[in-house]
Automatic annotation (TrEMBL):
Organism from which the protein derives: Labeo rohita (Indian major carp)
Positions with a binding annotation for Zn(2+) 1: H226, H262, D263, D372
Pathway noted in the entry: Purine metabolism; 3',5'-cyclic GMP degradation; GMP from 3',5'-cyclic GMP: step 1/1
A GO MF label: 3',5'-cyclic-GMP phosphodiesterase activity
Signal peptide (UniProt feature, chain positions): none
Record Pfam families: PDEase_I (PF00233)
Reactions accelerated catalytically: 3',5'-cyclic GMP + H2O = GMP + H(+)
Domain PDEase: 150-467
Major enzyme class: hydrolase
Biological role stated in the UniProt entry: Specifically hydrolyzes the second messenger cGMP, which is a key regulator of many important physiological processes. Highly specific: compared to other members of the cyclic nucleotide phosphodiesterase family, has the highest affinity and selectivity for cGMP. Specifically regulates natriuretic-peptide-dependent cGMP signaling in heart, acting as a regulator of cardiac hypertrophy in myocytes and muscle. Does not regulate nitric oxide-dependent cGMP in heart.
Keyword terms: cGMP, Hydrolase, Metal-binding
EC number(s) reported in the record: 3.1.4.35
Protein name: High affinity cGMP-specific 3',5'-cyclic phosphodiesterase 9A
Annotated Basic and acidic residues bias: 469-479
Length: 488
């Protein structure tokens, strides 16, 4: 209690003859302290500086730096030109510094239990730095693949500790999955324990779920982050629709297991490619949902290992039910079956009976389908990067199809598709009709899931209008050029 003062350092600076006292925590990083010195001397916070004592000797800037007094203040000297001429190098340096800061803070706060506050500070530091870099450099070096991330109005939240705030965040469709780094998927025991809490007792997720993680490939779209998103959306739908009261615990277990496993070992290229290219998977599964069959098979191969058998405590009859239920749900994620499954649900929804097994199975199929393609339910800043990931995967496929002389779907062709054209039809004709059907049963999803879909549709339609207008202008320009050429 009494050691508060020792947690702080006090340094005196000479700012144009005036003494400026600077106080900082001894847990601050050198980068933080530099920034503080810059601010104290009226410099922009990312200025490269050196610190000189009264004899002109350079003083290292770090939390253990030597004390001084009001009578021997340090002088802050900005370093200009020379080594940081290249803007890009500057940008990289800043990012590297932040990354270092992030990892050093992380290892420290891992021990100290104050990580949440610091991670949030790092995050806002990164945001501020990016904004500052952008404002200083206009757009000259931030083009193409160095685009700035969009401003986020989605609330951020601590994650490792799974505080009540995080649990609440995970329950919302607006959850921002991009705030989780890929290394954060390796869950600590603490997290595993906490993850169990909001769901129910039967959930026996052990650290060897890494078997699941390791069996997702590092694809642009169909990777573990996508699996995480789908599972989180499932969790939030269960919570939102109060399904734990309507379904049995085994049904909830099936929903969550299927979500976690639904894209295991996805090989990037979709069923159409598998079938057209006559791949091993297509041959093995006779062209019938080869990918979904494969995801299921990999899942149950993992569960068959004694270390990974999360169902070990179920009796054979219950296991059979879980296995069958999970397989049914994963197979339902084949979009080739979209019309069939949605039609079947539409026939049941007006007289839905939670005691009718066929009705419940059909609803579970629709739920996993909703979660699987739910990115556009999320706020724009969260959803939009997924479109880029998906297009990247599509383009990988269409490039390969072209190279192998196979048919190419227009929606995958980099020559034909744009973000708005890709999204508008999908939102209008696939997502909205499906979510509106689910809304008949669970009106509470309108505000948090259906409304964002409508807004996303409107936004992409606006974007398309802009695209069209730009194309029109381009077309006119080139026409004029040709006409001008002919006159000469
Ligand atoms: Zn999926």
């Amino acid at each position: 209690m009494g050691s508060a003062s020792s947690a702080y350092r006090m340094i005196y600076l000479d700012v144009d003859g005036r003494i400026q006292k600077v106080v900082f925590s001894r847990f601050c990083s050198p980068c933080d302290i530099k920034e503080l010195f810059c601010t104290a001397t009226g410099l922009s916070r990312n200025t490269t500086i050196s610190l000189l004592d009264s004899t002109g000797a350079m003083v290292s800037i770090d939390p253990t730096m030597p004390n001084n007094s009001e009578r021997s203040p340090y002088k802050v000297v900005p370093i200009t030109g020379g080594q940081l001429a290249d803007k890009e190098e500057l940008f990289q340096n800043v990012l590297t510094q932040v990354a270092e800061q992030f990892s050093s803070r992380w290892s420290y706060f891992r021990l100290e239990g104050m990580k949440v506050v610091e991670i949030e500070k790092c995050r806002s530091d990164i945001k501020k730095l990016r904004e500052e870099m952008a404002s200083r450099n206009n757009s000259s070096f931030l083009d193409d693949n160095k685009k700035l991330t969009p401003r986020r109005d989605v609330p951020s939240y601590p994650k490792y500790m799974l505080s009540q705030q995080t649990i609440d965040a995970l329950r919302k469709p607006a959850f921002d999955v991009w705030l989780w780094e890929s290394n954060e998927y390796h869950l600590s025991q603490e997290t595993v324990e906490a993850l169990r809490q909001p769901i129910f007792d039967v959930w026996q997720w052990e650290p060897n779920e890494l078997c699941i993680h390791d069996n997702y490939r590092n694809n642009p779209f169909h990777n573990f982050r996508h699996c995480f998103c789908v599972t989180q959306m499932m969790y939030s739908m269960i919570y939102l629709c109060n399904l734990q009261e309507k379904f049995t615990q085994v049904d909830i277990l099936i929903l969550m297991t299927a979500a976690v496993c639904h894209d295991l070992d996805h090989p990037v290229y979709n069923n159409t490619y598998q079938i057209n290219a006559r791949t091993e998977l297509a041959v093995r599964y006779n062209d019938i949902s080869p990918l979904e069959n494969h995801h299921c098979a990999v899942a149950f191969q993992i569960f068959s290992q004694p270390d990974c058998n999360i169902f070990a405590n179920f009796d054979p009859e219950a296991f059979k039910q879980i296995r069958q239920g999970t397989i049914t749900l994963i197979l339902a994620t084949d979009m080739a079956r979209h019309g069939e499954i949605l039609d079947s649900f539409k026939q049941k929804v007006d007289n839905f009976d939670f005691t009718n097994e066929e009705h419940v199975t059909c609803l579970k199929m629709v739920l996993i389908k909703c979660c699987d393609i739910s990115n556009e339910v999320r706020p724009m800043e969260v959803a939009e990067p997924w479109v880029d990931c998906l297009l990247e995967e599509y383009f990988m496929q269409s490039d390969r199809e072209k190279a192998e002389g196979l048919p190419v779907a227009p929606f995958m062709d980099r020559e034909k598709v744009t973000k708005p054209t890709a999204q508008i039809g999908f939102i209008k004709f696939v997502l909205i009709p499906m979510f509106e059907t689910v809304m008949k049963l669970f009106p509470q999803i309108e505000e948090v899931m259906v409304q964002p879909l409508r807004e996303s549709r409107d936004r992409y339609e606006e974007l398309k209008q802009i695209d069209d207008a730009m194309n029109e202008v381009q077309k006119k320009k080139s026409e004029n050029l040709t006409m001008g050429g002919k006159k000469k």
